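A reminder before we start the practical. When you read a complex entry, don't treat the lines as separate problems. The point of joint prediction is that each chain is placed relative to the others, so the output describes one connected object in space. Small molecules and nucleic acid strands, if listed, are placed in the same frame. In the example below there are two entries. Take a minute to note the order of the lines before looking further.
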Amino acid sequence: QKEVEQNSGPLSVPEGAIASLNCTYSDRGSQSFFWYRQYSGKSPELIMSIYSNGDKEDGRFTAQLNKASQYVSLLIRDSQPSDSATYLCAVWGWGKLQFGAGTQVVVTP
Amino acid sequence: ETGVTQSPTHLIKTRGQQVTLRCSSQSGHNTVSWYQQALGQGPQFIFQYYREEENGRGNFPPRFSGLQFPNYSSELNVNALELDDSALYLCASSREGSEPQHFGDGTRLSIL
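Here is the predicted structure of the whole assembly.
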């Protein structure tokens, strides 16, 4: 079992719609949770961090964390073609940051 | 504010050789982590340095080693290169390990 799991996609989303990305993790002791965006051939770019249960909003992005269910999600509202990228879920615990394999999002005009 | 910088951008080596990759952390950051990202995969944690000491390591063999210098810059050394070492090597810095990490542009290493 992978420690951080994401659907690989691709997730096809019409322009203007909401993209919903999911991530589960195996270590209950995990403390910090992050979403990164990675364009093809580029390095990961931090878009959200969340540390406690509930929702956190930043512009068009909302991160949701449920530690009891070991689940973290990312919503992208009003999706734009520039949001087409791979989204990486990352979980911090026991001295290391572990990444999922990423979900590819394709926003179609 | 200066971001994370890595050098070189690209590198081609042959099996059995040794390589050194370099990273300058973002100003104000004292923690540096290194990752290996194979094509189509998420970054895999290699190790982390905090104030010049290694304080966390992933499942990588001892031929992957590193250093952190007093100015918090860092090196990743890989000995006895293997074909499977071909990947994008990413450096990230943060104020502390649990805080958000910011990545450099990476070094793409190709092993022939």
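Discuss with your neighbour: Residues 48 and 65 of chain B are 11 Å apart (CA to CA). What might explain this?
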